[in-house]
Fold:
Amino acid sequence: MRRKLRALGRLIGEQMLNRRNMLALGGLTGASILLPPDAAVAALAPDGDPARRRRGSRPDDRVHVPPFSVEMPLPPVARPVAVRRDADVYRIRIRNARVEVVPRLLTPVMSFGGGFVGPTIMARTGRKVIVKYRNELDEPANVHVHGLHVPASSDGHPMDVIQPGGVREYVYPNGQQGATLWYHDHSHHTEAQHVYAGLHGFYLIHDPSERRYGLPSGRYDVPIMIRDALITPTGKLAYDVPDTRNMLLANGRPQPYFRVAARKYRFRLLNGTTHRLFRLNLGGVPMIQIGSDGGLLPAPQEMRELLISSGERADVVVDFGRFRPGRRVVMYDTSGAVMCFDVVHRVEDPSRVPDELRPLPDLPEPTVTRDVVFDLQLTPPQPKYLMNDQVFDHDRVDFRVRRGTTEIWRIHNADVELGGINHTFHLHLEQFRVLDRDGAAPWPSDRGRKDTIYVPPGQSARVKVRFTEYLGKYVYHCHFLDHSSLGMMAQLEVVP
Ligand code: C2O
Ligand code: CU
Structure:
């Protein structure tokens, strides 16, 4: 244990040096991190994680913006360049851009289409979407739609990248039910930096059969991407280790306000960070959760707090109808305020939240059981980020899965040393059902059709999943992208 600790100390230093070469750190140097003195945060963010830890930046290296001083924008909605009989066609440039995150400061970002949060792609169940990307960056990039049931050729496999200057067409069948999905870069080794730098956006599947529920829709259906950032006084978005990212952004602006009418809203909350857990609350105002990663829940559930780890989504309805104009409702994470909702006027509200939503389909009896173990190894010269004792190798198939089979996967986080290291589990291609956690009932955040879950140190979760339709190679990995980019990822192949 003590040897492991000493090795870790050396490794953190080396790893940070390597990171420095790649990234604009904007003059950050060592000092101690200001962590919120909150037991819940401490429990969620163990400091044993070498990918999270460094000596930190001086507080004055970071820009601070007064809370609730900028308005939360809505990400632009992508406009199809062609509407074919069988598909909507989009064209999106992957490019460098300068955007205003902090007022009156331009921040260089990597972008889908020019904004910090990419254009929202509005898909419809049963209707194809084709997106043609041109990579105008000077490095490879690619696009994965997180949560989409899609042929392997359009999944954005980490090794299947778009070279600089290259063009790539992804075809998305959208055979699944309505869901809040998102798209992001997945180029191996660079996904964490790329996503942090802005290669992220919403991909929403609307399902006409869900209209009958009468949920808030149209302008009252609002996607909100929550993430963190560290912005230096010169406007640089510094890719430093996660612990130093002091600024919370909603749709790309720091702690913004959002004007709402006194009625029900549907908020599609996405944790768009590369490496963070959020515990969100509205200061006692209830959130009615209606959906999770893969779409609507069987029934709405009143929540006082939402736990969402990197990549997870929660669809909630918040009813501002009982508030008078002038009332402010603040959304908090355990680390501070994320944003606020300002009730500005009254309006008719024909929307509702029915007692029953979309039932989960039955899955057949599982016939295969597998184990997935996260284990970080501190062997010099670099820590190894392992899944089942191995670093990701695209030439290796870790699990061969028969199409049509229902399986149980037991996900275990073995990293209990050094205060513990958090991991998350994300599976491509299919949504799964969480059966239990260490034999006990699943958590509230596990409800519905999931593709990403948080697995705390020393704990396990069992999930059940059925592999349908598509053949080929797909990855599964820790969705803390600082971990997956260093190899905490593996590959399955669906075979006939
Ligand atoms: Cu959100 Cu493999 O990714
Ligand atoms: Cu991890």
Remarks:
- The longest strand covers residues 87-100.
- Residues 1-46 have pLDDT under 50 and may be disordered.
- The CA atoms of residues 289 and 316 lie 4 Å apart.
